[in-house]
Amino acid sequence: MTTSLTDPAFIRRLESLSLLARRVLGGKLQADRRTNRKGAGVQFADYAEYTLGDDHRAIDWRVYGRLEQLIIKLFELEEDMTLVVLLDTSRSMDSKLDHAKPLAAALAYIALQGLDQVVVYGLSDRLETIVEPCHGRAKLLPLLRSIEAAESGGADTDFDGCCRTLQARHRRRAMVLPVSDFLFPTGFEKGLSLLRYSNHEVFCIQVQDKRDRVCDHRGDAELECVETGQRRRVTISPAEARAYEQAVADWNESLRANCAKRGIGLVSTTTDIAFDDIVQRILRRGGLVA
């Protein structure tokens, strides 16, 4: 059943998740916000000689008392996070998009409530903007409407190409959240490597239909690729059905191993599990961290 993202009952569920995020994570999604730039932050970084114009409140008077030198403390700055949601809108997501949207909307909602910046892209044969970069609680309803209006389309999913486009658009470090079935024709290894090479934090949410993992067909059948339209006549025996299911299991295990290798967080789910159960699981394990 399709969930309306602007329905009051749905928004109340988002508010409950946002309250949980504030209680568990302090309102943030727990991306690493520290930067190499020095300033008046929270985490101590280094000492430096005082120069005219520096904040006198940063002077370490204990050091001055011992050495009679004006030394200031430097701290690592904590920057607002940008949450970049990559919502898979390719045709392979036709049966899963109505489940992926609430997941993406919930985490984007929490980020906006935490005063972080959010941008949402559609992931298919190219990267398309669903929600322009936005900031602040006033953008909550427009964000939900835009995600709700997103439709599936495009040809083969070009995950690598979309990650290259993202790399060009977002030079600063961000939290990148792909929400997808990860059934990409050319795999996911190169795209994930590109994101990590760009120094982004990455957390993957894999959404699959049970029919992706189990083959119930037997006998002669004509199969059509939902993305390319290519057709193939096959005869499906029990042995071939088992081989298909094992291939999908191996593919999903490869995704898990690749994410673990690159320090990428991952949650895998199916469309029969409520979106808020998944978000609660993410929050209780520490947020969007590996």
What does this structure look like?
- By secondary structure, this protein is of the alpha/beta class.
- The chain folds into 2 domains: 8-27 and 80-284, Rossmann fold (3-Layer(aba) Sandwich); 34-78, no CATH class.
- Helix content is 38%, strand content 26%.
- The chain is built from 9 helices and 11 strands.
- It has helices at 8-25, 61-67, 97-113, 140-149, 159-169, 189-197, 210-213, 238-261, 275-284; strands at 34-39, 43-49, 71-78, 82-88, 117-123, 127-135, 175-180, 201-208, 219-224, 231-236, 265-270.
- A 6-stranded mixed β-sheet has the order 6-5-4-7-8-11, sandwiched between helices. The protein has a 3-stranded antiparallel β-sheet with strand order 1-3-2. It has a two-stranded antiparallel ribbon with strand order 9-10.
- Helix 3 (97-113) links the parallel strand 4 and strand 5.
- Helix 1 packs parallel to helix 9.
- The longest helix is centred in the last third of the chain and has 24 residues, at 238-261.
- The protein is elongated and about 90 Å long.
